[in-house]
Amino acid sequence: MRIAVLGTGMVGRAIAGRAAELGHEVTVGTRDATAARDDWTEWAATHPTVTLAGYADATAGADLVVNATSGDGSLPALTAAGEENLADKVLLDIANPLDFGNGFPPTLSVLNDDSLGERIQRAFPRTRVVKALNTLTADLMVQPRQLADGDHSVFVSGDDPAAKKVVTELLTSFGHTDVIDLGDLSTARGTEMLLPLWLRLYGKLGTALFNLKVVR
Amino acid sequence: MRIAVLGTGMVGRAIAGRAAELGHEVTVGTRDATAARDDWTEWAATHPTVTLAGYADATAGADLVVNATSGDGSLPALTAAGEENLADKVLLDIANPLDFGNGFPPTLSVLNDDSLGERIQRAFPRTRVVKALNTLTADLMVQPRQLADGDHSVFVSGDDPAAKKVVTELLTSFGHTDVIDLGDLSTARGTEMLLPLWLRLYGKLGTALFNLKVVR
Lengths: 216, 216
Known about the structure:
Two copies of one chain form a homodimer.
Chain A: E1 2-6, H1 10-21, E2 25-30, H2 38-45, E3 51-54, H3 55-60, E4 64-67, H4 74-81, H5 83-86, E5 90-93, E6 98-99, E7 107-108, H6 116-123, E8 128-132, H7 138-142, E9 153-158, H8 161-174, E10 178-183, H9 188-192, H10 195-205, E11 211-215
Parallel strand pairs in A: 1-2, 1-4, 2-3, 4-5, 5-8, 9-10
Antiparallel strand pairs in A: 6-7, 8-9
């Protein structure tokens, strides 16, 4: 697949690197591809097949788009990517609406009767938004077998069953063994609202290398 | 221990029944002990050592108080129990602030930068509030070994370490094997905000007999 990964941070690099390793044609999208930060240049040097482009150029040629930007950067980045470029495409949305305005722990800027995933879907109605992977650390998103041989759970939420299937297959190819389809995109409220617990567990355990398993 | 369980619903009965079985002296508190519903009478007949009393009478003689009322019933029930009766006591708070005003799934009436647990603590500053067991179904709260031989997690949140120890020991006596101390009472925001995900999993799995395990 041709995959556009929007965002050059930890999550973007993890997804881009792993997808390239699995043979996908990966372009990372960023605001200004001519002004890459030093740490990106370093990362890119070890991932020669991954190319960098502006948000719109990266998205235009993609089969699957991944939103790996920050919560408050998501709508601006997707707007820059362009509604036409995003039309009919599957958008794997990993962002969480974390608000660090009042320090740590952050609160959520959208929750309860709405979610960032739903906001993105409303802003881009022709895009097939699937919320997933926003409940675990970047390393485990793409290499889940490093923890308990993958014996833990991830979730997908979305209104388009075929789009969820595409994302589920990608997650399975990463090594996930328990991908739970929660239902329509409003179920993303549940996974986004998991973040406050995740952040406290992170503080308590002293490592981000943990995940939840739905025992049933 | 002398345990007062406030609330005659599913959660109250589960806690009261199990605590009595383990040899504790259990009184269930209710608004009007002379007006018990038929289904309570039936339950009580099979639990002859458990007594029923008004909120204040049940609380007055207790070492440990359990809030097993509904989210919107919690502050009224505890007010009826009486600030003096609750002073210095450990209060195990199991309630979730679910608001069914807009149908299913419910939203939360307090969240993000506050929690029901913290509201209760502010209303009763001399009481030692510990939030726990609000993340799983009543049957599993008290008989966790029936699922994966207890290989799943529960959480405690509270400002008083000794109070958390009392609750942790009670949970361990119920059969819990992984009781995670998240930290101070503000961490209850995380466990209360887990409810939206729990409710969607309940819908998806078609059973409440599931729980989360923190895999690390």
